[in-house]
Amino acid sequence: MKDGYLDIIDAEGVVTDKKELASIVHQKGLLHKTVHVWILNKKKELLIQKRSKVKWAYPELWEPFVGGHLSSGEDSIAGARAHVLEEVNLEVGPRDCVFLFSANHPSDNPHPNSIVDNEIHDVYLLVKDFNISQLKYSKDEISELKLITLEDFEELLSTEDKTITPHPEYYPMILDHLKQVEVNIIN
Q1: Number of folded domains that form the chain
Q2: How confident is the model at residue 170 (pLDDT cuts 50, 70, 90)?
């Protein structure tokens, strides 16, 4: 985990006048903001990533979005765009990521390494045509990328698959959103 500063937020997701190092935020379970960007291609396939074995949270689990913490002072859409570029090297315009909703990720979701994740996720959708073989990613962050159908994702959820990162607080809601997407490709 990078130990930069994170803004502390209130229960409604509003930034307070406090900021703290990420390590302290996770040690104390302070509420902070993250972004999750779900990426669909023109075939309505979902880009998923297998987290690297050196990740501090959920190593070697599949994650159906890209994203991460918002640095102190960073707004949500800028953070979403930055994480897409950083993680999978896709250029994203200011209107390409569509905000869907915010979801509370309660601190009672345990990590084996004593990390207390108490977050509100801003959830975005990016519909973009891309060639998965041309995506570049850091091996420290991601070990593998693949595309799956929404039906396959739904099957993973219905079987309570333990190879996917646990975000039961909003997976059913995002699946409903993804099923309703009319694919208009952003080039």
Answers
A1: 1
A2: confident
Domain extent for 107: 5-179
Whether 185 maps to a domain, the answer reads no
Query: pLDDT digits over 9-63, tens only?
Result: 999 999 999 999 999 999 899 999 999 999 999 899 999 999 999 987 889 999 9
Is residue 187 situated within a structural domain?
Answer: no
**What tokens does 58 get?**
């959920």
Strands 62-63 and 32-40: unpaired
**CB-based contact 30:16 (threshold 8 Å):** no
Instruction: Write the CA distances from 164 to 40, 60, 66, 111, 142, integer angstroms.
Output: 18, 9, 13, 14, 14
Question: Is 90 strand, coil or helix?
Answer: coil
pTM for the structure as a whole: 0.92
CB-based contacts of 2, cutoff 8 Å, min separation 6: 22
Domain CATH for 51: 3.90.79.10
